[in-house]
TrEMBL record:
Name the record gives this protein: chorismate mutase
GO molecular function annotations of the record: carbon-oxygen lyase activity; chorismate mutase activity
Top EC class, one word: isomerase
Positions that bind substrate: R18, R35, K46, E94
Enzyme Commission number: 5.4.99.5
SMART domains per the UniProt record, alphabetical: CM_2
InterPro entries, alphabetized: Chorismate_II_sf (IPR036263), Chorismate_mutase-related (IPR051331), CM_dom_sf (IPR036979), CM_II_prokaryot (IPR002701), Isochorismate_pyruvate-lyase (IPR008241)
Pfam family of the protein (one): CM_2
Domain Chorismate mutase positions: 8-98
Presence of the UniProt keyword ATP-binding in the record: no
Keyword list, A-Z: Isomerase
Length: 103
């Protein structure tokens, strides 16, 4: 039977903190899986390979992430760097799928 995950402010032990982090990590991975499914959809929709990389959209996505980080009080620079890597990985993933769909 799994332990009930407590809110951070209700944690009294490191085991409770770790259980919360582990549960949250699983949720994040599920969200990333959903995000990458949108990359597969984009690969299917975009008619030309040159459309996979869109620098204006990349800048917009990173700016939105940084604004949300600021609003929520988390490190803006860290989120900006992470989102840059996430978007680059997403572009690469989408490009691979674009190629696979057109073989």
């Amino acid at each position: 039977m799994s332990e009930t995950v407590k809110a951070p402010e209700d944690c009294a032990t490191m085991a409770e903190v770790r259980a919360g982090v582990d549960a949250l990590d699983r949720e994040l991975i599920e969200l990333f899986a959903r995000r990458f499914s949108y990359m597969r959809a984009a690969a299917r929709i975009k008619p030309d390979r040159s459309m996979v990389r869109d620098e204006a959209r990349k800048a917009q996505v990173i700016a939105q992430a940084k604004a949300a980080a600021f609003e929520l009080g988390v490190p803006v620079g860290l989120i900006g760097d992470f989102w840059d890597r996430l978007v680059e990985a997403s572009i690469a993933y989408e490009g691979e799928h674009w190629e696979l769909l057109r073989r």
